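Supplementary Note 3. Input sequence used for the single-chain structure prediction.
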Amino acid sequence: MIRNLLAAVSVLAVAVALPGCGETGTHAATPAARAAAAPAPVPAPSGKPVLTIAGAVSNPNDGNAVEFDLSTLDAMATVTTDMYEPFVHKTITFTGIPMVDLLARAGISPAGTRVRLHALDDYNVELTVADLSDPRILLATKAGNARIPVADGGPIRLVFPDGSKVGKNKDLWIWSIDSITVA
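The predicted structure, written as discrete structure tokens, is reproduced below.
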């Protein structure tokens, strides 16, 4: 009887554990699915805002948009990785926020399919939400453990991991980002 009870408990434990197998942290769900899970509120910037996400977002902290200052972005910057930077032809250690996490935190609408990134120099890049679903694509806030100066593409920039299909297109590498619009 005890053996049967232990066997039943073991089977139940495996059944409970299996649905999570293969998932790695918060990166397992799509951005839209994760946004639907009611993201934590983003605090209003206490410093100068450096990024505004507008459009199809459900977690605004300023009217219909989500604004971030560098301290909030740094607090969210959970990934540090080495990536080859094609414009300077060397590997750089970047720290940043996976774009999939940033979009989820902004509460992008499940209807949101396009992401337009705008830079301080009026350069624009448009990607699909699916293009940004790889958790290795970062909104970098630091390079080499230091803030990125505007002269070097800061204070925030989009970086792609080695071998990224989307990142092979150098026209999609955008730096000095100041706003993102989700449509």
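DSSP finds four helices and ten strands in the chain. The first helix runs from residue 2 to 17.
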